[in-house]
Amino acid sequence: MIDTKFRKIAQPGFDSIAKGFVALKLTPTTISIFAFFIGIIASVFLSQGYILVSLVLLWASGLFDVIDGTVARMTNKSSKLGAFYDLIFDRMVESSIILGFYFFHPEYALAYLIFFIAVIFNFSTFMIAGALFKNESSKSMHYDIGLAERTETFIIFTLMMIFHKYLFWILMFFNIIIFITGGIRFFRITKNSSNFS
Fold first, then answer.
1. Three-state DSSP state, 142
2. Residue 111: CB partners within 8 Å, gap ≥ 6?
3. What CA–CA distance (Å, rounded) separates 174 from 24?
4. Closest of 173, 191, 149 to residue 1, by C-alpha
5. Measured distance CA(170)–CA(58) in Å, rounded
6. What is the mean pLDDT of residues 69-74?
C-alpha cells in the first residue's frame, strides 16, 4: 500500500538517482541483479547477527529494486522479461532474509513457515490478477494493490531485526496481513470471474 500511495511523492528523488545510472549506461537488468545480490548478502550478515550491516544492505537492495524500473522507463527498456526478473528476484531476497532470520533465531521456525505459506498464497493471487486484469499502469503488467507490498515487508523485516525479542509476534502479525491481502484479491478475482474471457 505504501508503494502505491506514496510512490508519486518519492519518485522525483528516484528519478534523480536513476539519471546517474543512466549516465553510467547500466541496464535495468544489471541493476536488478545488483539489487538481488545485495539482498542475498544482507541475509548472510543477518544469519550471523550483524543487524546494522544487514539493515543497510537490505534497504540498499530495496532502493536498487526501485531504480531498475525507473531506469527501464527512462530508457524505454521496460519489458515483460524485466518484470519477470524483478518479481522473482524480489521473492528470492525476501525468502533469503527469512532464512537469515532462521539461522539468527531458529526457535521461531513456525512463524517462518507460516510466512512462506502466506507468501505463496498471496503471490499466486497477485500473478493471477496480473494475468486477468487489464494493465492500466506504466508497469509491464497489472500490479494489484495490496495491504502488504514491498515497502511494508521491508519495514516489518526492520522491526524484526531491531526488536528481535518480539520477532515471532511481529512476523505473525504480518503473516495475517499477507493472508488478508491475498484473500481480498482472491475474492475480487472470483467476483469478477464472469468478465474474464
1. coil
2. 167, 168, 171, 172, 175
3. 38
4. 149
5. 18
6. 87
Q: What are phi and psi of 97, to 5 degrees?
A: -65, -45
Q: What is the pTM of this model?
A: 0.88
Q: Which amino acid belongs to residue 176?
A: I
**Separation CA 113–CA 142 (nearest Å):** 28
For 80, half-sphere exposure in the C-beta direction (CA atoms, 13 angstrom radius) is: 6
| 37 closest CA partner among 18, 53, 58, 67 | 58
| Separation between Cα atoms, residue 99 and residue 175, nearest integer Å | 16
Q: Give the mean pLDDT of 73-92.
A: 86
Residue 19: CB partners within 8 Å, gap ≥ 6? 74
**Contact predicate 38/68, CB 8 Å:** no
User: How many Å apart are CA 122 and CA 181, to the nearest integer?
Assistant: 7
Distance CA 149, CA 1 (A): 6
> For 141, what's the count of Cα atoms within 13 Å in the CB-facing half-sphere?
18
118-154 confidence digits (pLDDT tens):
999 999 998 888 778 776 665 666 566 777 888 899 9
Least Cα distance to 105 among 172, 175, 152, 160 occurs for: 160
DSSP assignment string, 81-134: HHHHHHHHHHHHHHHHHHHHHHHH-GGGHHHHHHHHHHHHHHHHHHHHHHHHSP
Q: Are 28 and 89 in contact (CB under 8 A)?
A: no
